[in-house]
């Protein structure tokens, strides 16, 4: 049988917007009901060729996104996916990060990630997912925290499982979402030990002050009992 292979990108991307507005009740689009002809679906995470502002904590967000869909996701899949992490670029789903999609991949402004499936005989044979680690807000560039990265990863995995976009703003497959105001993971990893030491030092000071106050109160009580009774 003559097999035609081609690549396409059906707007399989998620946009970053500052706000989220009202809910629209509409069923999500579907690219394919059963996009994969086998299980488990193998996943390769490229955490070696990474951009400057990549955070090692992003790897865990990919694992959480996989668990999200294995546990049912948004409830719109016709099947229960099973994923398997592999150390091979021949995996079914390949994931990589870039500094900024607009600058590196030429994506439209505000796009935070995209999934590009390759299809043969009506089934996916490979999906490449590309995620950026930050975006521009005006002239300033902002690093994505773990919560934002998790949302982007969930969305793109949804595309890799055959789901299109949803017009329900509460659905993970809605193409726009509010950027999470979470902590920059690189700053956390860099200054985390210092912050922990500072917190410990503050706790020691507070405990010392508390002990001193109790001793002073006890001493004053003793003097009052001695001279004012």
Mind explaining what this structure looks like?
- By secondary structure, the protein is of the alpha/beta class.
- Helices cover 33% and strands 23% of the residues.
- It folds into two domains: 5-182, Collagenase (Catalytic Domain) (3-Layer(aba) Sandwich), CATH 3.40.390.10; 184-229.
- The strands form two sheets. Strands 1, 2, 3, 4, 5, 6, 7 and 10 form an eight-stranded mixed sheet that branches.
How would you describe this structure in keywords?
33% helix; eight-stranded mixed beta sheet; alpha/beta; 2 domains; 229 residues; two-stranded antiparallel ribbon; disordered N terminus; Collagenase (Catalytic Domain)
Secondary structure: helix percent: 25-40%
The fraction of residues assigned to DSSP E strands is: 15-25%
Mean pLDDT: 79
Stated plainly, the CATH topology of the largest domain is called: Collagenase (Catalytic Domain)
Main sheet, how many strands, which sense, barrel? Answer: 8 strands, mixed
State the separation between the terminal residues, measured CA to CA: 107 Å
**What is the helix tally?**
4
Please indicate the count of domains: 2
Number of strands: 10
The CATH superfamily of the largest domain bears the name Collagenase (Catalytic Domain)
- Strand and helix order: EEEHEEHEEEEHEH
Write the layout of secondary structure elements.
Elements: E1 5-7, E2 13-17, E3 41-45, H1 57-70, E4 83-85, E5 93-98, H2 101-104, E6 111-120, E7 123-132, E8 134-137, E9 140-143, H3 146-160, E10 176-178, H4 185-227
């Amino acid at each position: 049988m003559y097999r035609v292979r081609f690549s396409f990108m059906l707007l399989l991307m998620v946009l970053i917007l500052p706000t989220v507005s009202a809910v629209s009740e509409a069923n999500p689009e579907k690219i394919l009901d059963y996009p994969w002809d086998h299980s488990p679906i193998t996943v390769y995470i490229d955490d070696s060729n990474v951009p400057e502002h990549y955070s090692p904590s992003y790897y865990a967000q990919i694992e959480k996104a996989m668990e999200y869909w294995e546990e049912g996701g948004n409830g719109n899949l016709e099947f229960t996916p099973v994923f398997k992490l592999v150390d091979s670029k021949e995996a079914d789903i390949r994931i990589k990060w870039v500094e900024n999609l607009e600058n590196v991949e030429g994506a439209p402004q505000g796009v935070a990630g995209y999934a590009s499936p390759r299809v043969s005989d009506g089934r996916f044979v490979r999906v490449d997912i590309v995620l950026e680690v930050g975006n521009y807000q005006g002239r300033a560039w902002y690093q994505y925290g773990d919560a934002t990265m998790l949302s982007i990863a969930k969305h793109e995995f949804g595309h890799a499982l055959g789901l299109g976009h949803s017009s329900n703003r509460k659905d993970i497959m809605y193409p726009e979402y509010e950027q999470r105001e979470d902590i920059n993971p690189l700053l956390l990893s860099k200054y985390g030990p210092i912050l922990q030491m500072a917190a410990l030092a503050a706790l020691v000071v507070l405990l010392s002050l508390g002990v001193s106050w109790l001793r002073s109160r006890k001493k004053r009580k003793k003097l009052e009992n001695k001279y004012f009774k």
